[in-house]
Write a structure and sequence with these properties.
The modification 4-aspartylphosphate is found at residue 53. With 124 residues, the protein is α/β, with parallel strands linked by helices. It contains 5 helices and 5 strands; from the N terminus they run E-H-E-H-E-H-E-H-E-H. The chain starts with a strand and ends with a helix.
């Protein structure tokens, strides 16, 4: 059974790119366009990994991350931040908020596949 990745991303082009890359590598991709929908979908589907955009239209990705991590049924799910926030200190702040890894946009195909595979392996 393929591993399921929940991608929480409000930009349709970024979502399409991530979906194409991950599906090509054999993952099932679940999609949510905002933080509240993403948290609800994580609760319903319990994916193997979450890709979390930080800048979302309702609650931000850090709040959504904390809601997922604080849920006893979901806290084990690794969360990879997927963000354009690439200023000094952003990665540390994002990891301190509960994300397990960090990828800056624009997303590199190889970097995305590598971080997803590595993070899944570390949390297996």
């Amino acid at each position: 059974m393929p591993q399921r990745i929940l991608c929480i991303e409000d930009n349709p082009q970024n979502m399409r790119l991530v979906r194409k890359i991950l599906q090509h590598h054999g993952y099932d991709v679940l999609e949510a366009v905002d933080g509240l929908t993403g948290v609800a979908m994580a609760e319903r589907e319990v994916p193997d990994l979450v890709l979390m955009d930080i800048n979302l239209p309702d609650i931000d990705g850090l709040e959504a991350t904390q809601r997922i991590k604080n849920n006893p049924q979901l806290g084990h799910i690794p969360i990879v931040a997927l963000t354009a926030n690439a200023m000094y200190g952003d990665e540390e702040r994002i990891l301190a908020a509960g994300c397990d890894a960090y990828i800056s946009k624009p997303v590199s195909k190889n970097a995305l596949v590598e971080i997803v595979a590595t993070t899944l392996a570390e949390h297996a």
